[in-house]
Amino acid sequence: MIKVGVVGGTGYTGVELLRLLVLHPEVELSVVTSRSESGRKISDLYPNLRGHLDIEFTEPDVDRLAECDLVFFATPNGIAMKSVPTLLEKGVKVIDLAADFRIKDPELWSQWYGMEHACPELLEEAVYGLPETSREQIAKARLVANPGCYPTAVQLGFLPLVKAGLVDASCLIADTKSGVSGAGRGASVGTLLCEATESMKAYKADGHRHLPEISQGLQWHSNDKVGLTFVPHLTPMIRGIHATLYANLTQDVEDLQALFEQAYKDEPFVDVMPVGSHPETRSVKGANTCRIAVHKPQNGNTVIILSVIDNLVKGAAGQAVQNMNIMMGLDEETGLRQVALLP
Ligand SMILES: NC(=O)C1=CN([C@@H]2O[C@H](COP(=O)(O)OP(=O)(O)OC[C@H]3O[C@@H](n4cnc5c(N)ncnc54)[C@H](OP(=O)(O)O)[C@@H]3O)[C@@H](O)[C@H]2O)C=CC1
Ligand SMILES: CC(=O)N[C@@H](CCC(=O)OP(=O)(O)O)C(=O)O
């Protein structure tokens, strides 16, 4: 059994990791941390885990975490980087669900995250954990930077076109919507029921920190300079990301549908839907699946890609378990075969 630790077990991505890991046949949950709930039985706080998990939250303590084979950090940005060097030194593998290791350039990271990086020397080694592009590197990695939720939906949508060099990479547009759980469990006025329901709004239209992450990821697969307009929106649902992506074709493409189907034909967690589909966020709720549909309106040369994920699953905890499976040499789908919850 793989001994696993979760730092930040009280948060939304933390408890989603627990939901997936308690049914994972190769995992023993050894340490789950919380500063605010230390000493409390986990299933008292999260009754969905009653009968599945019988341990208590403990204070985050690097020596206890070092007894694990692999540790997930489901913590705010800037926390994992303080403990990762020690854990790696002690032979523990790490998957960070936050952004500490996602951006390769430490100056760019500091510019967007507003702090000095604690271990910039590890940025080059860290593998960006999008299995659909980096499976082989993930398999050899000690440290994986789990992608953000918007970046997962947007990159999976654009990548087949960008990789094939069929679109003007300098003029990509991503119009994205997120459920409120994307903002985490911490109390804030903006996520109160009365503030976030029956309404919808864009935010950070002039610069969201996922912009450099998505641009970096697309640039790795593009011969041309990537230019992206990215606007996130908050929508009144609990889970889900819906990305509507626009790109301009630079040449005639006979069969866009075939291009996407070919790109993802061996991917267990990417579903290219039939021509004319409009994927719904509820079709991936609770599942580690990204569903994609491609549309080519008759007028003009614009391609529209629709991409949906559950922000807490393929956008966070599910993708992290997928990465763990790859890092530990397990079947990539182990513990991740959930069907989405409908209606
Ligand atoms: N929510 C989402 O959809 C997604 C989130 N992410 C990223 O994943 C990370 C976690 O997000 P989310 O679960 O939503 O966040 P939450 O705010 O819901 O949870 C954060 C967790 O971190 C713990 N924590 C906070 N500060 C510290 C600290 N200094 N040391 C140790 N533990 C700490 C908290 O527990 P306690 O205070 O009890 O210790 C809590 O369990 C974030 O970096 C987020 O950006 C990535 C993709 C999607
Ligand atoms: C709705 C909402 O607030 N969403 C969050 C994204 C959460 C996330 O994925 O954060 P990181 O990838 O940066 O870790 C936001 O826009 O900040």
From TrEMBL:
Enzyme Commission identifier(s): 1.2.1.38
A Pfam family hit: Semialdhyde_dhC_1
One Gene Ontology MF term: N-acetyl-gamma-glutamyl-phosphate reductase activity
Alphabetically ordered keywords of this record: Amino-acid biosynthesis, Arginine biosynthesis, Cytoplasm, NADP, Oxidoreductase
Domain Semialdehyde dehydrogenase NAD-binding, first and last residues per copy: 3-141
Residues at the catalytic site: C149
Pathway(s) served: Amino-acid biosynthesis; L-arginine biosynthesis; N(2)-acetyl-L-ornithine from L-glutamate: step 3/4
Compartments (UniProt record): Cytoplasm
EC top class named in words: oxidoreductase
CDD domains linked to this entry: AGPR_1_C, AGPR_1_N
PROSITE patterns cross-referenced by the UniProt entry: ARGC
Catalytic activity, reaction form: N-acetyl-L-glutamate 5-semialdehyde + phosphate + NADP(+) = N-acetyl-L-glutamyl 5-phosphate + NADPH + H(+)
Keyword flag Transferase: no
The family this protein is said to belong to: Belongs to the NAGSA dehydrogenase family. Type 1 subfamily.
Xref: NCBIfam families: argC
Function per UniProt: Catalyzes the NADPH-dependent reduction of N-acetyl-5-glutamyl phosphate to yield N-acetyl-L-glutamate 5-semialdehyde.
Protein name: N-acetyl-gamma-glutamyl-phosphate reductase
Organism: Litoribrevibacter euphylliae
